[in-house]
Amino acid sequence: MATTSHSYSDPNSSLCSDGGGDPVIDLDVLDSLDLSRSGSSWNYMESCITATRNGKSSLLSSISQFTAILAQTGIEGPWISRTPNLAKMAIKIGAGAQFTVFKEKPEYDTKPQPVVIKRVNVPLSQDEGGHFAAGHTYRLQLRTLGLEVMALTNPSLRSHPNIVRLIAWGYDYPFFDMPVPVLYMETALTSLTSLLAVNSEHNCTVDVKYQLSLDIANGIEALHRLRIVHGDLKPDNVLVFRTQNDDVPFRGKLSDFGVCLDLETPNSPFSLSDYRGTPGWLAPEIVNDDLSRFPPFQPDLMFHFDAYSFGLTVLSVFTNHGGPFAQVTTESATQMILQESNLTSTLRMTLGKAIPKLLHEDPTQRPLPSTRLLETETTAYDSWLLSCRIKSEGNVNRIIQELIKQYAASKSDFSGSVLFGMAQAITGQYPYVPGRFEMYLTDASKAGHSPARAVYAQIMAALGHSLACEPEVLEEWMYQAVSQGYLFAPASALTAARKTHALSIFRDSGGFCTGPFLQKPTVVKAARSTESSLLWIDKHGLFVDQMGNTILHAAAAIGEVDTVRALIETAKISVDIENDNGETPLYMASQAGHAEVIMLLIQMNADASRTTRQTKLSPLHWLFVLPESMIRSIAAQLVAAGADVNAVMRPIVSKNANDFSLRMLVLHYPFELPYGTPLHWAAFFRNLVAMEALIQLGAHVDATYHASDSGSRPLALAVWLGDLEVADCLIRHGADGTLTDSHGQNLLHKSGADINAKARDYNASTPIAVASRAGIRNGGVVIALLDSGAELEGSTMGLGNSVLHAWASTMVGSLNYPCSYVPTIERIATAMSNVNLRNEFRETPLHLLAWSYFPEDTFEKACEILLAHKPAVDLNAQTCKGVTPLSIAFSIRGDAARRGLFLLDKGALPDILSDRGQDILYWVADNEALSDQATCDLIIIILQRMSTTSNIYETYQLRFLHNQMSNWTLFRAASLGKLQTTILLLSLGLRTRINDLLPDTNCTVLDTVLHQAENYRRNHMEQLAKYKPGPARRAAVAAVALHSHEHQGGKTYQRAEAYHAFPKIMRSLREAGAQRRCELESGTTDSTDMDGTYINQPQLWDWAFIYMSGFTPATQPHREQWAMLYELARYPTEWPVVDYMVEWYENNTWRPDVRFIEEEKDGDVVRQVIARIGQPVEDKERAVRLKAIDPVMGSVEVTVVDREIVKRTKIDAFVLWDFIAP
Q1: Could you report the per-residue pLDDT of 668-721, keeping only the tens digit for each?
Q2: 1113 with 1094, same domain?
Q3: Given 153, 480, 662, 1148, which is the most exposed site by the fewest CB atoms within 10 A?
Q4: Is residue 704 within 8 Å of residue 712, measured between CB atoms?
Q5: Measured between alpha carbons, how far is 603 from 454 in angstroms, rounded to an integer?
Q6: Is there a contact between 1124 and 1066 (Cβ–Cβ < 8 Å)?
Q7: Would you give the distance in Å from CA 1035 to the centre of its chain?
Q8: Which residues contact 656 (CB under 8 A, 6 or more apart)?
Q9: How far apart are the first and last CA of the chain?
């Protein structure tokens, strides 16, 4: 192919100059990489692997390739122009065999975030003559950049929490005609070796070491998933970054990478010597260059070489400060772990199992690195897992709650896929919020998300809601969904002609094929034409993607009969050519439902007996994708061509996956594919024609999944899914309904056989109990079983719950058909002789009903059913803690007033006390979802309904005040910041008990309020610090975002209200005669010399920690309203506050703020602290040196003379370690 030249007038053009003329773009090589898909989703690695398969060069060998490739990835750049170069603007901070690492000098550092610069090593001498960029050595050195770029721009690694991030790219110009590629990487705190050093300033606890080991495992696992071998794993090559998470303060990341096994070529096969590594961290077979005692070398063994280095690295992290070992055996490693005194028993056991396996002398016996090897049931692991999910996948509950808040504020920014995910995530969420699921589903559909549109009408009908769009819109939604693979469209949703057309679009787009080539427009276009496909082979080669798919696979997948014929007859491509997974063109044509292509391939002697390499899927598994008119004929032809009608899929179980099978996902409902035989698949997709055809051809009607029991038969799955037509078809063809699975469950347990048979599980569950379990709760099945004679008396569930308990605690919104709830409760209650059964907590069904989150009219209907029962439900039953249904009703986060007053009107007694002496008004005051006004009003209403004289004060004193624990209510109202309620309770008579001590805390109500108020004061400043001063902070305050957050029940805590109410509550209590416990003990309120430090008080926090929130004691918000908080603080004369601060400083948990040193009013405390923590400065009288925090410079070392800072020097950042302020 001829070289094409393009002229650029820009002297800083990013393309290199070849021999002083115009820049030359190596189009042959770039064409082989298929740069047709620009943007951040383009996968350079995938293109390289495909090019390698086709015998093309896949490694960087010119600067023009570097430019063209990086420009396609979405990575920012280029950042550097020719002048000045790195020699002038940066400092070298490290060097290795492939790269030199630089950090920019401060005066040149204008980047938006801290970065280091990696420059590929090239010889800086003109030993070859001519221009540097044209030299052979220069081009060879560029190739060392290839894998680095390949890995760092890979979509799955770019956002990985344990792979260092590539920020941008550019060039350095050591000489005018020598552009050298550079990569801008995120800046690490240090290396793992430095972090673990004996003299390190960082406090590496066992938990930190454990979490960093998990980071390494997670990073290696990600590389191996892409078939990248690290090749030099050791603590030096693990970079450590700080996080903002106190539970996981550091994050370990991998940077340098070895080889990608998919880039091996026949002319240059990998060998043992390609695994280089560092002495001291290598597996013994590498050191000895000897595999004679083990299987011969195969490239995949390199993953197990990494496993050995990983084992040594983890062992060193825990036992050797990150240093290498002179010699290690599995026995010595075990001893080191046993002798390491800092390890917990759980971690010792985990490491004791994992590391000897990783250090096994036979490389084939080493498990591949995985976080599962190090998984423990510990807080450290849970925190690490949560932090990873927040960063990448995201912890579902926290992320969903945040999305809910954001969506309420700005709906326009949400895509349909996110909304549909939110709808799925909150299904069955506790507690149930009416209307939320329907809103997200509707908005996801309106936003264009096809999977949401596919199921919208059916779900809304099941929920009993009207549709938010016209019928013609629904038809277009369903048409779109079917054209993308939704195969469950009801007959009424589309006309037969439109459904046929939509299915043809789906098949022509590749059907259920998933090959990467389908995302390459140039490949699909070539496969559409006979001439273009043949030209593709001449230009690019046979292969079209990294999975080994060929142009013939592509043509078969999109149904191009003429192209398939030409490629086999003219290009002489084998009719049974396989990709990496063993998929043939016949398999792909079946996967896409192309009957004509299947028939052609069979005519050309395609072997239908072949199955996929990993899962053993056959073309017959995809029979349901074909047009119904062709199913019987194609099925018969496939069987005649060798297809096994009873081929059983083998689920993929990855190494270290705890025997869980990997799921095969699809875009539309049911969102994942089944296991089993072709009959399982046909039944799963409700294709009765395919089922009949397979059974007639000899399919076993009671076939099971691979290595499974009768519970995985097609009939069992149909019953589980409630699919009447499929179940009827299977039974008509001889399916046995009496078989039981390994748990003793028959088909009645799954959705009939002995109708009261008990399963061999912990609770000996009956079918009706199973149908009532959380996550199943099928009202139709329950009613059908009861109508068929099922017994309820012996049907118990976990924790002694009856079937009625289970249904009483049901969230209506979690049911597939919410309208079934009341009829089911009624049918169950009618079948029971006693509706007051108790579980292990002495709870009756009414207790659970009172807790449940669903609309109040539904609650009231269910209550009426239980009240109408003979004998009626006991409204006043008490749990093992003395709690009544009425107490619970007044505690809920929903409409507590309506629910509680309903029970009160039905005869519930309000005088019953809990075992701790809490009266009914306590539960009202304790309800955080009720505002102060709502709480106050509800207490008045309750007292009015109890009163015979309309005098609520008299009623309270007669019915409540005699209770010695009545002050519980006052404590709770005051501690929640409910001012009006507090004043009301004092006026009702609790003023007489204002100084009683609460048994739980041995504090007075004033102590309790002071403690809570201080917590709110601190929290307010900590939350304010999250917002920039100015409009953002004012908006947060106006939106009460600092204190109130959405509760799961849709209510908000009244924390903003409480923040401003606490000062008034303190004053009201004090005016009513409230004292602190320390005042009662000392007999005076005049002296401040007493010990009140048994609660949180402001002084110490102000001295040590207020500065972290960006405030000082003088500049804190609302300083004047907190005056009484300071006035009522009590400190003993011998308060060891200085000792505390010195201890924190010496333990690296605290540094003084410079404003504390220079501005704090209590100079004596400051001077004592400085004298204790400061180091004398030679030749400077009264001068001491210490580490501090400067609000502008950050961590500094300061020289102090008489509280005046005379010198400040910036030092490494300081991390606050696992510290809770007193």
Answers
A1: 888 889 999 999 999 999 999 999 999 999 999 999 998 788 888 999 888 878
A2: yes
A3: 662
A4: yes
A5: 38
A6: yes
A7: 29
A8: 367, 368, 370, 372, 373
A9: 75
- Return the closest-CA partner of residue 1092 out of 1127, 1120, 1065: 1127
Q: Looking at the domain assignment, is residue 1206 inside a domain? A: yes
Confidence of residue 52 (pLDDT cuts 50, 70, 90): low
pLDDT in tens, 398-421: 556 767 777 776 676 678 888 888
For the stretch 894-912, pLDDT in tens is 899 999 999 999 999 999 9
Number of domains present in the structure of the chain: 5
Q: Are 260 and 211 in contact (CB under 8 A)?
A: no
Query: Which of 1094, 1109, 1132 lies at the terminal end of a domain, its last residue?
Result: 1132
pLDDT digit string, tens, across residues 732-752? 999 988 777 766 666 654 443
Among 159, 187, 215, where does a domain finish? 187
Q: Can you give the C-alpha Rg of the chain in angstroms? A: 36
pLDDT tens digits, 326-356: 889 988 998 899 888 888 888 999 999 999 9
> From CA 950, how far away is CA 954, in angstroms rounded?
9
For residue 183, the cross-strand partners are: 118, 169
In whole angstroms, what is the distance from residue 789 CA to residue 780 CA? 14
Question: Please, which contacts does 776-779 make with residues 24 or more away whose CB atoms are closer than 8 Å?
Answer: 777/806, 777/807, 777/810, 777/814, 777/815, 778/722, 778/751, 778/816, 779/815, 779/817, 779/820, 779/821, 779/823, 779/824
Q: Given the DSSP bridges, would you call strands 190-191 and 238-242 parallel, antiparallel or unpaired?
A: antiparallel
- Residue that the structure tokens 């917002």 belong to: 1027
Q: Would you say how long the chain is, in residues?
A: 1222
Q: Are residues 982 and 1109 in the same domain?
A: yes
pLDDT tens across 685-696, in order? Answer: 999 999 999 999
DSSP-assigned letters across all residues of 889-928: HTT-SS-HHHHHHHHHHTT--S-PPPTT---HHHHHHT-T
**Residue 1194, helix vs strand vs coil:** strand
Residues 284 and 355 occupy one common structural domain: yes
Rounded to the nearest 5 degrees, what angle is found at the Cα of 1078, between the Cα atoms of 1072 and 1083? 75
User: What is the Cβ-side half-sphere exposure of residue 232, based on CA atoms within 13 angstroms?
Assistant: 17
Amino acid at the residue 72: Q
Three-state DSSP class for residue 1208: strand
Q: Is the peptide bond before 431 cis (omega within 30 degrees of 0)?
A: yes
**Is 684:671 a contact under the CB 8 Å cutoff?**
no
| pLDDT at 987 > cutoff 60 | yes
Q: What percent of the chain shows pLDDT beyond 70?
A: 81
- Confidence band (pLDDT; 50, 70, 90) for 55? low
Two tokens, residue 322? 């990150």
Please report, for the domain that includes residue 212, its CATH number: 1.10.510.10
Per the domain annotation, does 688 fall within a domain? Answer: no
Each residue's pLDDT tens digit, 1164-1204: 999 999 999 999 998 888 899 999 999 888 889 999 999 99
pTM above 0.70, yes or no: no
Write the CB contacts of 407 (distance below 8 Å, at least 6 apart in sequence).
414, 419, 422, 440
CA-nearest of 69, 59, 84, 95 to 14 is 69
Residue found under tokens 């199992």: 353
Contacts 24+ apart (CB under 8 A), 663-670: 664/615, 666/485, 666/512, 667/450, 667/451, 667/484, 667/485, 668/450, 668/451, 668/454, 668/481, 668/484, 668/485, 668/486, 668/487, 669/451, 669/454, 669/455, 669/486, 669/488
Are 1185 and 1083 in the same domain?
Answer: no
Measured from the Cβ of residue 398, the count of other Cβ atoms closer than 10 Å reads 12
Give the domain extent around 69: 1-187
Q: How far is CA 788 from the centre of its chain?
A: 45
- 432-484: per-residue pLDDT in tens? 677 888 999 999 999 999 999 999 999 999 888 889 999 999 999 999 999 99
Tokens of 320: 């050797």
Tokens matching residue 1189: 């925090």
